[in-house]
Hints:
Blueprint: H1 2-31, H2 35-48, H3 55-71, H4 78-91, H5 95-108, H6 115-128, H7 133-146, H8 153-162, H9 167-172
Helix pairs in contact: 2-3, 3-4, 4-5, 5-6, 6-7, 7-8
Amino acid sequence: MSYLLSLTLYKKIDFMRLFSILLISLSILAACQSPKEKALKNIKELEGNDSAFSNELMMQLKTAYVDFAMAYPDDEQTPEFMFKAAQRSIVLQQDNEAVDLLLQLTTKYPKSTFVEDATFLMAYTYENNLHDLVRAKTLYEEFLQKFPNGELAQDAKLSLDNLGKSPEELIGNLPAEE
Length: 178
């Protein structure tokens, strides 16, 4: 009887040892995130903060987007992160950095769904923030060639028609009210 009891105890102890090892292994595995997973987690946390009212948080998020894009250029989220970084650069009045990011996005990821918006935003930034009307005109024309039926095509046409006009000139072009 004692042999049977000790065999049963041995099996219980063996099972508990195996269960403990498994539990510890899973805990260690869960704690060890890859650098990519850590970067994505950091981005998600920063996105969860209301960075619209804090330039410091917006800068941290922009930096996280750029760092991810540099570290993982082949990741499917990279074009989106580059676009979001450019948007934040514009808000932070870092317009040259914004157009650099947008140019990289359109060059490196020409098939991305963000290329249309990136091309328009680049033209808009040259026009309104950098006041480079020659470059803005070129980019609006490029936009219309590539995306003649795009969501922003009408906006690009209007921008081209009104490029360089003063607010007074624009008001003078409005149809008279009857």
